[in-house]
Amino acid sequence: MKRRLWLAITLLIILSFAIISSRSATVKKAGAIVKKESKTNTVNSAFAGYVSDIYQTAGLKTSGLDYDVFQKAITGYYNLKQNNKIAANSSVVTVVDFNKASTVKRMWIVDLLKKQLLLNTWVAHGQGSGDDLATQFSDKTDSHQSSLGFYVTDDVYYGKHGRSLRLDGMDAGFNSNARSRAVVLHAAAYVCENTIKQLGRLGRSFGCPAVSPEVSNQIIDLIKGHNMLFVNANVSGYNSKYLNDSLLSQFTAPADSSVQLSKAGI
Fold it and tell me: 197-252, pLDDT tens digit by residue?
């Protein structure tokens, strides 16, 4: 009888110890999660504060650039830079928002280092993408549609549209055929206020981000040589590995054009 009693007491002690250990581990795990979430929130706040500072200082709201679109562009910019896709000293980003009608100046060129809007102007979309508003996008040859996503600017050349800028699409399946499709930034006479007055919209390209001849050279000189261009539209199905915000867990606001982040590959 005594033996059974001692056995029961021993089992009870062991069970109690196991319960206490389990609860202790759970509490520690919960504490670690809270600490991690707190750190993440701090980091996100740091990045959001950085983006907001540039957005406000450069007067981007007044110019018509939506905050969430700009934030997406800057997220991609840092991912591209960290993965050596754009120039190390790059501080200029170009944003095209095809959520907006062609009658609106929907291209923005922003200097992140100077926190300055360098240019806000019209840009055409592809014939196959829609009339005044672009609603269809493709990376297929002969689709004559615009392609969404992140691009890196390359070299300048002279073609049938005059001085033009080659673009390399970074998003596989969305714009990675830019080279083979000859999707480049070039001047087009149909990108002007007179065309808007005559047609109620801009003229359209074969898929290239065509700009006004009055500012084409200025744009090319500002963004050539491995800088980022982001083409945005709210459509289902688009995704990009460069919108991965895990990199931002190491974000600190840069004091200059260099990216102060620890290495994090994509």
Answer: 999 999 999 999 999 999 999 999 999 999 999 999 999 999 999 998 877 767 77
Pairing of strands 116-121, 162-169: unpaired
Q: What is the pTM of this model?
A: 0.81
What SS3 state is found at 245? Answer: helix
Distance CA 79, CA 36 (A): 22
Contacts of 35 (CB under 8 A, 6+ apart): none
- Provide the sign of the torsion angle of the four alpha carbons 44, 50, 55, 59, taken in this order: positive
Distances (CA, A) of 123 to 69, 107, 184: 16, 6, 12
Helices 67-82 and 2-57 cross at an angle (nearest 10°) of: 110
Q: What distance lies between CA 195 and its chain's CA centroid?
A: 30
3-state secondary structure of 129: helix
Alpha helices in the chain (DSSP H): 2-57, 60-63, 67-82, 178-181, 193-199, 216-223
Which secondary structure element, helix H or strand E, spans residue 95, and what is its range?
Answer: strand 92-97
Provide the 10 A C-beta neighbour count for residue 98.
24
pLDDT for residue 265 is more than 90:
no
pLDDT tens-digit profile of 9-27?
666 666 665 555 556 554 4
What are the structure tokens assigned to 38, written together?
């707190």
The tokens of 43 are what?
């980091």
Hey, is 153 helix, strand or coil? strand
